[in-house]
Write a structure and sequence with these properties.
- This protein is about 50% helix and about 15% strand.
- The chain has about 220 residues and is of the alpha/beta class.
- It folds into 2 domains: about 1-135, 3-Layer(aba) Sandwich (Rossmann fold), CATH 3.40.50; about 145-220, Arc Repressor Mutant, subunit A.
- The strands form 3 sheets. It has a 6-stranded parallel beta sheet, with helices on both faces. The chain has a two-stranded antiparallel ribbon with strand order 1-2.
- Helix 2 (about 45-55) runs parallel beside helix 3 (about 75-85), helix 7 crosses helix 9 and helix 8 (about 175-180) packs across helix 9 (about 185-200).
- The protein is globular and about 45 Å long.
- Mean pLDDT is about 80; it is low at about 1-10 and about 145-150.
- This is Response regulator transcription factor.
- It comes from Kocuria aegyptia.
- InterPro entries: CheY-like_superfamily, NreC/VraR/RcsB-like_REC, Sig_transdc_resp-reg_C-effctor, Sig_transdc_resp-reg_receiver, Tscrpt_reg_LuxR_C, WalR-like.
- Pfam families: GerE (PF00196), Response_reg (PF00072).
């Protein structure tokens, strides 16, 4: 929970915007200022300043562009999460390649969105990120998908595991997935753990990235 003025508690979600395009950063911070439950705590334009400001401002959520001066958003995210593992990072990219998707997912970011996507989607993702929800926009999965179908060397997932995987790719929470599949949350968590093991992933977002590369998200559930 963020600190407010004069030491009072501020329940609004605090956001650090990291982008080297000044116009985009200004437009986004302006939009955040219009939201009663969100507040901007600063703007950084390169890797080093993003890490420095994150340590000083302690934001709940970081909106991170992939392309940055002095490196990229994956590098910055890895260093931020090493120092402050509870930080939620939403990465934006105009370059949705499979390599970028998997590199971002392995750092521990919680969401991966197209930079030219809608503001409404970004704001919704920021709100969900603080609650621990992960999200990857379907358009990025489509763009990153190499078109390969599951075959030799691809882990075999059961029909139910594929159903859970597809719902994970849509960004639903475990509770929502359980309701949609008419199973208990604990049972759903069990499926998620099995999927992570089978795909050799450490997070749900990384599992979705790996599944996209292997063509599992094109498999019928």
């Amino acid at each position: 929970m963020s600190g407010g003025v004069d030491g009072q508690c501020d329940t609004r979600t605090s956001i650090l915007v990291v982008d080297d395009h000044t116009t985009f950063a200004e437009l986004l911070t302006g939009a955040l200022s219009q939201e009663p439950d969100l507040r901007s705590v600063g703007v950084a334009g390169d890797v080093e300043s993003s890490i420095r400001l994150c340590g000083a401002r302690r934001p709940d959520v970081v909106v991170m562009d992939y392309h940055l001066a002095g490196g990229n958003g994956v590098t910055a995210s890895a260093r931020i999460l090493r120092d402050r593992p509870g930080t939620r990072i939403v990465m934006l990219t105009g370059d949705p390649t499979q390599h970028v998707l998997e590199a971002a997912a392995t750092t521990g970011i919680c969401a991966f969105l197209p930079k030219d996507g809608s503001l409404a989607t970004l704001l919704e993702t920021i709100r969900s990120a603080r609650c621990g929800t992960m999200a990857v926009h379907p358009s990025l999965l489509t763009a990153a998908e190499p078109g390969r179908r599951p075959g030799a060397g691809v882990p075999a997932l059961t029909q139910r595991e594929l159903q859970v995987l597809h719902l994970m790719a849509e960004g639903h929470s475990v509770g929502a997935n359980a309701r949609l599949l008419n199973i208990t949350p604990n049972t759903c968590r069990g499926y998620v753990k099995t999927i992570l093991v089978k795909l050799g992933a450490h997070s749900q977002l990384e599992a979705v990235a790996v599944a996209s590369r292997l063509g599992l998200l094109t498999a019928r559930s």
